[in-house]
Amino acid sequence: MKIQRISESTLEINFKSPREEFSLYWASFLRSEIGQIYLAVPWHGLVKEFKLKDYKKGPRRRFSPRGMLALMFLKSYCNCSDKRLIEHLNGNINFQLFCDLLLHGERIENYKIVSEIRTFLSKHLNIKKHQQILATAWKPYMESPNLLLTDATCYETALRYPTNVKLLWESVDWCYGQLKMNCKYLKIRTPRTKYLKQKERYSNYSRKRRKSKKERRVLTRSLLHLLDKILGLLNEIEEENADTLILPNRYHQRLEIISKIFDQQNEMFITGSSVQDRIVSISKSYIRPIVRGKEVKPVEFGAKVNMIQFGGINFIEHISFGAFHEGIRLQQSIRYGRDLVGKITHVAGDDIYATNANRTYCKKEGIIHGFKRKGRAGKDEEQYKKIRSILRKERATRMEGSFGTEKEYYGLKKIRARTQKNEELWIFFGIHTANAIRIAKRMALADPVEKAA
What percent of the chain has pLDDT over 90? Predict the structure, then answer.
């Protein structure tokens, strides 16, 4: 069919059957990049492992089990907001076919369905099992699966840069709002506090470009006193009106977090040193500061991931929202790599992995590593030197390059999910969407007949 301009076309009667018309759209879809990704993903295994089913009772879901997973891949592929994703889905038939959906001129108006599906899927996420399914399907297209590259990276969460003054003010502001609401509900007078005065002081302080140590210390002391007073008032009102004032669990959880923040900030103010498991956000209390020693970002806030790679395909070996030493995880990485792809003969990592324990383990298992030599050179030193150089170059270019690609193009530069499980799901689909695109290109080159079909 020739391409036609809509302004120059006239209405015509279509004599094609619906099945023949759909087959044309489907063939065009499979030739596109999104169609190649569709062919690369093992949908049946993922749907089964996520335990997704179409329920016969009740209203039918708009998205099928496969469509829900496809929507998460599409979210990372488009690298856009949930609202923009639904707009793309409404107007792009290839996206609809990818998500096992045909709207027939209708529109999805509720863009919050994306976050609802994300929350639902996050409850069933098992990274190890789901990656096993992907590795089994992708292993024929992996280059040198016996070579394991490993490194750690941090996928930052969308979080304002935390300071002690900001955190204390946010705690004071939330507690004072709850105090006013409780008093209004009970129809009693709101107790007097210096909230308005501290609000003005914080506003003036936050507008200054240069903040002296003395100003910061004075304001921190004032906010600690005010927060302590408001927390005491909230507990007093709750105890006096225990029968009439019924508060939700979310309120008690948030109040417990703020109480812990007060204890930590008070201890830091008195001692002048940091505390263990320091909370840096009220809404994301699971986030911990991760010191990585980079020039641009000495401290990062988000999920730290120890990654393993086979032929450009990344897999999550360990994920944590707190700091951990990735150098002690090489043995677990090798064992997990064997579960995914089979025998491992070569390993490459940066200098933090080059511990004596890891060197001894690699020697015992007959694995060639890319670490710098210790001790005297052997008779085959020249060959080992060339191998080490190749392994170190492969890790430094290919693996770290893949981290940058995932962050810039697949929505992992700033994770905008609101819960810990949702962040893990976001990272999982971002990494494996990038993997699926790499595998799709290799599948197209390996089977040109299938590509033409």
Answer: 75
Instruction: Give the strand pairing for 299-310 and 147-156.
Output: antiparallel
Identify the DSSP state of 373.
P
How confident is the model over 409-425, as a mean pLDDT? Answer: 95
pLDDT (tens digit per residue) in 57-116: 777 788 999 999 999 999 999 999 999 999 999 999 999 999 999 888 789 999 999 999
Both tokens of 181, joined, read 């609401």
Query: Residue written as tokens 């030493």?
Result: 325
439: amino acid identity, one letter: I
Q: How far is CA 55 from CA 18, 44, 52, 66, 403, in A?
A: 28, 17, 9, 14, 39
Q: Give one DSSP letter per residue of 428-450, joined into a string.
A: HHHHHHHHHHHHHHHHHHH-HHH
Residue ranges per structural domain of the chain: 15-122, 127-159+287-452, 164-271
- H-type alpha helices, 316-419: 330-341, 356-365, 381-394, 400-409
pLDDT digits (tens, 9 = 90+) for 246-286: 999 999 999 999 999 999 999 999 999 989 999 999 999 99
Tell me the CA distances in angstroms from 267 to 212, 271, 276, 280, one per residue in order: 21, 6, 11, 15
Using the structure block, give the residue that is written with the tokens 């430094």. Answer: 396
Fold of 127-159+287-452: Nucleotidyltransferase; domain 5 (3.30.420)
What pLDDT is attached to residue 374? 83
Gap between the Cα atoms of 354 and 146, Å rounded? 19
Which of these, 54, 72, 73, 78, lies nearest to 114 by C-alpha position? Answer: 72
Report DSSP letters for 78-107, one per residue. Answer: HT--HHHHHHHHHH-HHHHHHTT---TT--
Mean pLDDT along residues 38-65 = 88
The answer to whether the pTM exceeds 0.70 is: yes
Q: Which residues on adjacent β-strands are paired with residue 303? A: 155
Helix, strand, or coil here: 293? coil
Residue type, 356: N
Q: What is the pLDDT of residue 14?
A: 61
DSSP string covering 154-193: EEEBS-PPP-HHHHHHHHHHHHHHHHHHHHHHHT-PPPP-
